[in-house]
């Protein structure tokens, strides 16, 4: 993605956040926008510890509590998505930006001989899953708005 498009995207998600904060009556703080920009500059999944360390390295003075509270706001605003990949970390939830992303699923690859230490996360979209979703909707008379699908494994040598 080119720099101009990234700037347009950042402006758009800031507007989404501003409108959300106004609608909910939350404070409109510069820290929230800084955290949002950092998240949307990433190209991978992250946890709160990752984000906190990144913010500290860049000399942003935000507490881990502020990040946790901000993450909850971003989740509710639809700006990020939460995942439970089953990893063994202090903060077991992972997150990813979601405002511009299409529905996708995850293949979580653990390191061999580890206690659920993640080696790699592969995002994929398989059109056959859409067919399964439609069959479930028809069978149960529902409209599925979203889904999450995770496969877990290790690489073959």
TrEMBL record:
Chief location: cytoplasm
Coiled coil: none
Assigned keywords, A-Z: Cytoplasm, DNA-binding, Metal-binding, Repressor, Transcription, Transcription regulation, Zinc
Pfam families: FUR
Domain of life: Bacteria
Location within or outside the cell: Cytoplasm
InterPro entries: FUR (IPR002481), Fur_C (IPR043135), WH-like_DNA-bd_sf (IPR036388), WH_DNA-bd_sf (IPR036390)
Subunit structure comment from the entry: Homodimer.
Protein family membership: Belongs to the Fur family.
Protein's name according to its UniProt entry: Ferric uptake regulation protein
Annotated source species: Chryseobacterium caseinilyticum
